[in-house]
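During the first year of the project, the team set up a workflow for recording each protein of interest as an amino acid sequence followed immediately by a discrete structure-token representation. This format lets reviewers and collaborators read both layers of information side by side without switching files. As required by the reporting guidelines, we include two representative entries from the current panel. The first entry is reproduced here exactly as it appears in our internal archive.
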Amino acid sequence: MNARQASGGIVVLAALAALPLFIRSDYLLGILSVCFIYGIWATSWDFMSGLTGRENFGHALFVGAGAYTAAFLNGKLGFAPWWGLPAGAAMAGGLSLVIGIPTLRLRGPYFALAMLAAATIMQRLTLIFWQYSGGEEGIPGLDPLLESKAAVYYLCLGVFVAITLLLLWLAGSHWGLILRSIRGDEAAAQAAGINVTFHKIAALVVSALCAGIGGVLYAHYQEAVTPDVFSVALSISIIIMVYVGGIGSLYGPAAGAVVLALLPELLRGLGQYRLWVYSLVLIFILFFAPGGVIAPLWRRVTGAS
């Protein structure tokens, strides 16, 4: 990271930290809090799939695991909401081991398909066992982590920044270099003596832990959880955010997720045409900027390589 990148990052963070001083609307602060949660999900997806090249089509499995764990602990068992953060992360990490150990040993689409199937199965299980999960209505009545919308904003911003910096540090470390070598040529990495399977599983666990924390934040922000947190649509939305931001860069997906999550609100003045405009923007970016928008633009502005 050069001096211009560091300075630019500090300016962006200072601007985000100062926003509640100028925005008095709890609704807008809530929208921005959700944008940061999407940023957590996109960055965590990019850490595993962007660095290793193994696409994950069921990232919502980890989001939902964290959200439902928090909901059961707080809504059903009466635990304080803060217990959901470590428990939700642990549940998502455990599921990543269950899925990753048998599938990441294999080459081909098995991991991607297993993740897609697992997320869909979990969504159906929440409907089948409606007596415990609340079915389509989900589990309502969760306690918020913090009472003030401004405090929730700072909490989500803090977790988002901390996770992004942690994953950027890991990506820039020797381990990150190993993960990139797997993406470049998995067979060559294995021939060089790298335990490819171990590193892919470890990256998946880190990715799942972060996504689970995001799921817990989302559940307590909404004060409810529904089966939609396991949906394929959510997984696809996260992947689109990563590609718009710039896959493999981590900071690009983080910013791309915030921008795309905020875009529908910015287009609200267009009424019924806003979804058309939103879709056209996405199609334009995906077709004409396959390397993403945010990361290339940031590199051009800051002069990074």
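The second entry, processed by the same pipeline in the following quarter, appears below.
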Amino acid sequence: MDKTNDDKPSDGSRRQFIGYGAAMAGLAIAPGVTLFDLAHGRAPEEAASNKVRWGMLIDTGKCASGCNDCVSACGKENGFSGSRETDSQWIRKVEIKDLRNGQSHSLPMMCQHCEHPPCVDVCPTGASFKRADGIVLVDRHICIGCRYCMMACPYKARSFVHEELHDQNPDVPRGKGCVESCTLCVHRVDKGGQPACAEACSEAGHNAILFGDLNDQNSEISKRVTKLATTQVRADLGLNVGIRYQGI
């Protein structure tokens, strides 16, 4: 997991504050999970590249109302069941209706991995950050659970972990007292895979979620975004999100 130089603390007082925040988080983290178990997969010395911009294109015409395959896959991969009221939800299905023609659409909503993420702007410790390849993450080492990022996110895509967690995926360590959101399954992506939601959607034959490199002109997602009419949710905010929708 890598940060750009701009994400690093710049003075002694900030480092002191971050250290204090990390100590607070350490008191609340789940048993058996160390503060240094960040979601990983990529070798520490291998930096993310800004030549890549990971993103998704979601075809709402193929996303069926009532289908939760992507939601279930996300929960299984990242260690939450959705059975408790306080469980995190990194991806959710929403139903929208066009009042002009009455047409309804069902679509998954998750962190939009903004180029200019408001969650990063308001984070007092630098825990919310954007990698060079566009993936927006939370560094649990220094998240103090203030939840400013949750208030700043226009997509309501972040969750706060209220309770102790057990039986976690070692590649996706999570902890009580931290804020979290969709990581685009960075631990899979760094190994050359794709997010669990996209894989599940494809394996079920829906093919509504396409994952890939938006910067690669030869990638399928880039070709389709160039050729087809796509939508950025709340494009008026100018966040240049990495999740695009087709059909709305």
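For the second entry, the following points were noted during internal review. DSSP finds seven helices and ten strands in the chain. The helical segments are 12-28, 69-78, 118-122, 148-152, 186-189, 196-203, 220-227. Both points are flagged for discussion at the upcoming steering committee meeting.
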